[in-house]
């Protein structure tokens, strides 16, 4: 079942009966199950054949996550960033760690396009807020990246401002495109084509009506590391597919959203738990890997113009609600990576480098062999 009948799309995990974890997903099983969260992509694919640095072939893009549909600078969200491994070129980390708020859309792209994307997010926010730099302070764009240079002419820095604005303009709630889209266009993961994946979990009845949603930019790991439900699927697949070891150690970005009322300190605790989901699919957090988790809550927004004391309520640390959020973050991260793998199609990139889409039928056969499906 390498395509969903009648759609021309490759299936997600649950489409083939692969259930990850114990908690129930939201209606869309996506980060956009958290009310108000929006996602947009801009995908850039041009040329084929030999690499001509600066010209192509191009396999790259931009993905943006908006915490809510309003003005994020004026109504900031409480947030945290956990650096699993700092071999990355992300921006905006220090201020989020210091102040505990996110005040712009979160943007994902390739390593050498961070500067361009930062400038575009800055321009977008300045257009929304003419008082910035005049009667109030400046801003802190959060931009994160992975290296797509195996398939893409990364030196060409083909992501331009118009692509960032295209992604921002395309941002919407509802179904999230996955696989070879946006920032995930040229990414590779665990020996196969990687990219964008998403998943969500609803907290159990009796605890809270809250949802936890995760979006990943999956670009890490080698084939032999791939685990699914504890099964060494990568080692089994080595008998059937040829893995190229020419890709550099990759990276991963995880974005976690929730409408549970969590403080920035609690959000950092949640972000750290996402490492469990990554480890479950085979991440070893390699030396050359830049691994980051951004977490935010859509509750208890922070007004830019607020002054004096504020009175807000958060979940207690010893509450079963927070424990459920931890589990939800682990499960949704794990499934988001697998959805990225399942949805991504085979891609031929620069110098005819190939990254195959994971052979879903063979994966299911292996999982049934190990009684995991």
TrEMBL record:
Recorded family membership: Belongs to the peptidase S58 family.
GO molecular function annotations of the record: aminopeptidase activity
Family matches, as InterPro entries: ArgJ-like_dom_sf (IPR016117), Peptidase_S58_DmpA (IPR005321)
SUPFAM superfamilies named in the record: DmpA/ArgJ-like (SSF56266)
Protein name: P1 family peptidase
Pfam families from the UniProt entry: Peptidase_S58
Coiled coil, from the record: none
């Amino acid at each position: 079942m390498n395509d969903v009948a009648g759609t021309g799309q490759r299936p997600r995990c649950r489409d083939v009966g692969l259930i990850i974890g114990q908690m129930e997903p939201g209606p869309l099983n996506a980060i956009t199950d958290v009310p108000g969260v929006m996602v947009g992509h801009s995908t850039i694919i041009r040329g084929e054949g030999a690499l001509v640095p600066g010209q192509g072939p191009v396999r790259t893009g931009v993905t943006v996550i908006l915490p809510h549909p309003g003005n994020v600078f004026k109504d900031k969200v409480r947030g945290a960033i956990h650096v699993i491994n700092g071999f990355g070129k992300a921006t905006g980390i220090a201020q989020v760690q210091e102040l505990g708020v996110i005040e712009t859309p979160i943007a994902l792209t390739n390593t050498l396009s961070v500067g361009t994307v930062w400038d575009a997010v800055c321009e977008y926010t300045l257009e929304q807020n003419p008082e910035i730099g005049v009667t109030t302070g400046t801003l802190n764009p959060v931009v994160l990246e992975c290296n797509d240079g195996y398939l893409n002419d990364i030196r060409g820095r083909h992501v331009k401002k118009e692509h960032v604005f295209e992604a921002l303009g395309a941002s919407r709630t509802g179904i999230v495109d996955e696989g070879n889209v946006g920032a995930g266009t040229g990414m590779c993961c665990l020996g196969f084509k990687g990219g964008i994946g998403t998943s969500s979990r609803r907290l159990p009845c009796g605890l809270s009506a809250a949802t936890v949603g995760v979006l990943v930019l999956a670009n890490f790991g080698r084939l032999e590391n791939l685990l699914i439900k504890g099964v060494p699927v990568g080692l089994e697949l080595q008998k059937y597919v040829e893995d190229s070891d020419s890709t550099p150690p990759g990276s991963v970005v995880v974005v976690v959203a929730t409408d549970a009322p969590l403080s920035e300190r609690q959000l950092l605790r949640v972000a750290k738990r996402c490492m469990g989901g990554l480890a479950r699919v085979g991440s070893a957090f390699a030396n050359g890997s830049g691994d980051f988790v951004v977490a935010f809550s859509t509750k208890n927004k922070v007004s830019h113009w607020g002054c004096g004391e504020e009175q807000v309520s958060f979940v207690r640390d010893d509450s079963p609600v927070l424990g459920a959020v931890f589990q939800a973050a682990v499960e949704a991260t794990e499934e988001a990576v697998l959805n990225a793998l399942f949805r991504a199609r085979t891609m031929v990139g620069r110098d005819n480098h190939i990254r195959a889409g994971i052979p879903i039928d063979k994966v299911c056969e292996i999982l049934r062999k190990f009684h995991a499906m």
